[in-house]
Each structure stands twice: as C-alpha cells, then as structure tokens.
From TrEMBL:
Residue span(s) of domain ABC transmembrane type-1: 54-340
UniProt keyword ATP-binding present: yes
Domain of life where this protein originates: Bacteria
UniProt entry tagged with the keyword Lipid biosynthesis: no
Name of the protein described by the UniProt record: ABC transporter ATP-binding protein
Protein's organism: Cryptosporangium japonicum
Annotated localization: Cell membrane
C-alpha cells in the first residue's frame, strides 16, 4: 500500500492557472518586460530620484566609457602594428593609451558611485514596495483570505517584494551592457560585417540556454508555493514559543519531524531534478556556444589569410571579439536577471491588481452619524465550498442603547452575523443598514471584542488603546477601562505596569495566561468610544469572579450605549433587552429571557440544560 500524499504536496486546482501564466511563450514575456521595467523604474524614481538618476547616468556613462575604451584600444593596436621605428609607433600610440587609462579610471569611479547609490536606494525601494503591499493586504476583506489561490499569490508577492530593486539594477546593468555591445558591433562591422553575424550566432546558444533555464526555475518556483508555505508553518511549529508547550505535552516531536521530512523530501527531489535539468541545458548551450566561438576565430583566420583584413585589424578584432565575449556574457546574465526578476515582479504586480479588486468601494461613503437604529435586512452569507449557508435570510433590528444577545449552539451563525454587522465580512445578499443607510465597509463607530483574540506584542497600555487615534492616551481612561474588565490589578502587578511589554521573546517582556489576555481584550472594548460594542464570547477563559465583574460592567452600559453580546453562558444574557436565537444560520426565536423561557422553544431547552448542570453540581457538593 502506497504512503498517503500530504494535501500540501498534491497539485491544487488553481496551480494550472499559475502554470499557464508561467508557461507563456518567451517572446510574449520579453515583449511584456519593457512595461514591467517601466513600472519598476517608476517605483524606484518615487523612492529616491537622486540615487535612481545616479545609477542611470552611471550605467550610460559606463557603457560609453566601454565604447571609448574599445575604440582607444583599436587605435593603440593600429599604431603599434603600423610601419616605422618602434619609438615613433609608441609615441603615436601614447595618446590612445592615455585615453584608455582615463576611460578605465572613469569606469572604476562609476562602479563605486553605482554601488554607493544602489546600497542607499535598495532599502528605500524595499520600504516603498512593502508599504504598498501591506497597505493592500491589511485592507482587503476577510473573505479574500478564505481563497487558497489568494493565500498562495500573497505568498509569492511577499517573497518577491525585493524583485523591484533587483529588476531596476538588472535593467541598468543591461543598458550598460547593451551600449558595450553596440560598441563591439561597430568595431567588428568596420573590420568585416560577416564577423558580426558570426558573433551573434556564437552567442545565441548561451542566450537560449540561460532563458530556458530561467523559465524552468520559475515554473518550479510557482509550483512549489504551497510546499514553501507548509515548510514555513512547520518551522514555526517546531521552533516558536507558542507551540512549544503543546508540542511537548502531546509528544508531537516525531509527528512534526515526519511531516517536515515528507514535505522537505518532496522539495529536495524537485530541487535535485531542477538542478539536473538546468545543468544539462547550460552544458548544451555552453558546448554549442564554444563550437560557434571557435568557428568565429576560424573565420577570422581565413579572412586574414585571404588578405581581406590587415594584421592590425585582425589584432584589433581579436581584442574586440574577446571584449564582445565578455560583454555578451554579461548581457546574457543581465537578460536572464531581467527575465527572472521581471516574472517575480509580475507576481507582485498581478497580486496587487487582484487584491485591489477585493478592496471595498467605500472611500467615498460619508462618515456615519451616531447610531439611532441598526437593521439587518434579509442577510445571507455562503462560504466558498460549502453548500449550507452560514446565514440564511436573517432580519433583526437593534436600537441605540439596547443590549442584545445572540445565542445558539456552535455553528449556528452567531459570530458570522456579528462579523457582518461589524463590516468585517460582506453578505452574499441582503444588507446591514446604519440609520437606514447601507454601510459597505468597516464602520469606525463599531468596536469588536472577538473570541479568537490575537496576542499583540505591544505594551499593556498599547493593547488597550490599540487602534485608537491618540498616541499618548490618558492614564485615567486606560485604568477605568481595565477596571471594568477586571484587568487593572493584574496589569498593575506586572513589572512595569501598563508599560510592560507583553511578549516574552523580547527583553523584559512578560507572558499572560489566556484569561489575563481576555481581560486585556475586553478592556480594549470598554476603552473604545464606539457607538456599538460587539463582545463575542468575552468570558470564555475568565474565572468566576472576573466573569461576574465583566458582565456587571456590560450591564452598566445598558440604556446608555449599545452592546451586542454573544455567549454560551445563558445566565449572563438574562438582562438583555432582546435575545436572538440562531440555529443553522436561521433566526428561529426572538424575545426577552422571560418570553423565551415561557415559549418553551430552543432557548428554553438550552437554558434548562445549563441550569440543570449547575443544580446537579450544587447537589453533588
């Protein structure tokens, strides 16, 4: 029986589209490169105009100096091979030798200037590229992250953020090489036009091999995106502090090592095969190119023997051909770099274009006024790949100052409904209306305390005022929010109080328990001045005393500010103005606690089950 293949090693349905993009013909890709180079240059220009100009001018002057140096070399050889006494020939060649030395010195200075400019330009370009990338990734709605293809495209775009500066550098270097090629071409054509054609034929095999190898590398790279993401995940699981306790508690070391071995084994085989294919391609290209180069020298010898070119021209041609070989080799390398980095930069550009299609069109929407009434009108939501809708035609109304509760069993749609109200997700149909107006994006007048909170690696104070406008919040307001969440005493006991960094991986950082983190998260909600506060399972990790204090603070908001409360502990929603009961995405009951208990429906059953559990525990004690 064959060993099962891990899901991350199988070919995914969307990879065919990636391969199709990667397998575009070489001519089509090369035709598209000028546009990509233009975009990269614009990014570089906006990041630093002075240094971009220095690199461009240095590349042009370097190419010009190469041309000038070759012409000077040609003149030196002509004078040295001319008839006459040696001293006279040396004196005649001296001006050309001086010009050659000056050209060489200038090229050296230009190389230094280019290196200095590139070293300073690179971090600026990387900053601009990553800033634009993360400006998009942090703005797209949550549903974008539900798509496997989006995650994989984002993986490649994130890894290829440095392709811009590499493409800019390769483009300028190619420009310098192109000027050198023109110089060589002029020198060779002057000697004999047939030599130029022979030189092009000699270069073609290496160019083909380099471009073909680049395409093979990129194809392999595209197909390995899932494996790379999986390997990074396994690296984190085996080396990060957060996973370390459960890794040891559940004895996962062998399991994770086997997973890593299987994924890495597949990647190793692919890389070995890639290396073999590239080595074969480059060997063939070098062999054919070597034969063709030898043929160029044979042709040169025949032309010399036939008397079609003089000896001084033949010597010049040898120098020119050697310069041509170096220049063409450099050009092939730069073409390969432009080709490869152009494809990687295209991944970055394509991802940004696709991601921007996901961005909500709410930039022109007016800022919402204070909440009077919030309506959920026939809202439905269906997740990709699921037949059963997460929400199915839900209608409800919340008035300002009310405390309402969403209750139901796991998977009933409570958190999904809260996410739609908060603007974190967009409904498949229906609308959420704020004071009668639909709100397409995240509403700044809504604050959310989620059950799946993230442990932000900032100070305790920053974790409470996170996302608020003020950078230096009032200490009294911070402490008041923390007290309402039963978090103040816990924070005050930390080594640096509210200035304590909540990340153990940094110096003087501290770690918190799950319940302590949940208090910090609840304090963030109380600190917010939003009109509507959504609290999704805010007490799941709290001890009874902290839970009682938290819900007392929630009850104190009743009639003053608006709260949506989601919890499985139904005793804590008895005082809600309205309770909405969901089941399998549908709103099945609504009313006050007393109304729903008297109705004897689903809510009454759930409440009775919980109450019986407490009575049983009390009797047993």
């Amino acid at each position: 029986m064959s060993e099962p293949v891990l899901p991350e090693l199988r070919t995914m349905w969307w990879e065919s589209g990636n391969r199709a993009r990667a397998e575009i013909g070489a001519f089509t890709l090369i035709a598209g490169l000028p546009g990509l180079v233009g975009q990269a240059l614009r990014v570089s220009w906006r990041a630093d105009r002075v240094r971009t100009s220095v690199i461009a001018v240095s590349a042009l002057l370097s190419g010009a100096m190469a041309t000038f140096g070759l012409l000077a070399t040609q003149q030196v050889l002509i004078e040295l091979f001319a008839a006459g006494p040696t001293p006279d020939r040396l004196r005649a060649a001296f001006p050309a030798l001086t010009a050659l030395a000056v050209a060489t010195a200038i090229r050296s200075l230009l190389t230094v200037a280019t290196g200095y400019a590139q070293n300073s330009l690179t971090p600026r370009v990387n900053h601009a590229v990553e800033q634009r990338l993360f400006a998009v990734t942090t703005a797209v709605p949550l549903e974008a992250f539900d798509e496997d293809a989006f995650a994989d495209d984002m993986e490649r775009a994130t890894r290829n953020s440095d392709a811009v500066i590499l493409l800019v550098q390769a483009s300028f270097d190619l420009l310098a090489s192109a000027i050198g090629i023109v110089a060589v071409g002029v020198a060779v054509v002057v000697i004999h036009p047939l030599l130029l054609l022979a030189l092009i034929v000699a270069t073609a095999p290496r160019l083909w091999a380099s471009l073909h190898a680049g395409r093979v590398r990129y194809l392999t790279y595209v197909a390995s995106s899932v494996r790379h993401r999986r390997l990074r995940l396994l690296h984190d699981l085996m080396a990060e502090r957060d996973s370390a306790p459960e890794l040891r508690a559940y004895r996962l070391r062998r399991f994770l090592l086997e997973q890593h071995d299987q994924v890495m084994g597949a990647e190793t085989k692919i890389q070995i095969d890639l290396s073999r294919r590239i080595s074969t391609t480059m060997t063939i290209g070098s062999f054919v190119g070597g034969l063709a180069t030898a043929a160029v020298y044979v042709l040169l010898g025949l032309l010399l023997l036939d008397g079609q070119i003089p000896l001084s021209a033949a010597a010049t041609c040898v120098v020119a051909l050697q310069a041509a070989q170096r220049t063409l080799t450099s050009s092939i390398y730069q073409i390969d770099r432009v080709y490869a980095e152009g494809q990687h930069f295209r991944d970055y550009v394509v991802f940004l274009d696709r991601a921007e299609e996901h961005l909500p069109d709410d930039a022109s929407a007016p800022a919402p006024g204070p909440l009077s009434v919030l309506r959920v009108d026939a809202v439905s939501l269906r997740y990709p790949g699921r037949e059963q809708p997460a929400l199915d035609a839900v209608d409800l109304t919340i008035e300002a100052g009310q405390t309402v509760a969403f209750v139901g069993e796991n998977g009933s749609g409570k958190s999904t409904l809260a996410a739609l109200i908060a603007g974190l997700r967009r409904p498949s149909s229906g609308a959420v209306r704020w004071n009668g107006e639909p709100w397409p994006g995240h509403n700044p007048r809504i604050a959310v305390v989620t059950q799946s909170f993230y442990k932000w690696p900032f100070t305790a104070a920053a974790n409470i005022h996170l996302g608020q406008v003020e950078r230096d919040p009032e200490q009294e307001r911070l402490e008041e929010a923390a007290r309402r969440a039963a978090a103040h005493d816990m924070i005050a006991a930390l080594p640096f109080g509210y200035r304590t960094l909540l990340d153990r991986t940094f110096a003087d950082g501290q770690d918190l328990s799950g319940g302590q983190w949940q208090r910090i998260t609840a304090a963030r909600g109380f600190y917010s001045s939003a009109d509507l506060l959504i609290m999704d399972e805010p007490s799941s990790a709290l001890d009874p005393r902290a839970e009682d204090a938290l819900f007392q603070a929630i009850r104190d908001r009743q009639g003053v500010t608006t709260t949506i409360l989601i919890t499985h502990r139904l005793a804590n929603v008895r005082h809600a103005d309205r309770i909405y009961v969901l089941h399998e995405g549908r709103l099945v009951e609504t009313g006050t606690h007393d109304d729903l208990v008297r109705a004897g429906g689903r809510y009454a059953d759930l409440f009775t089950l919980q109450a019986a559990g407490y009575r049983s525990a009390g009797g047993a004690g």
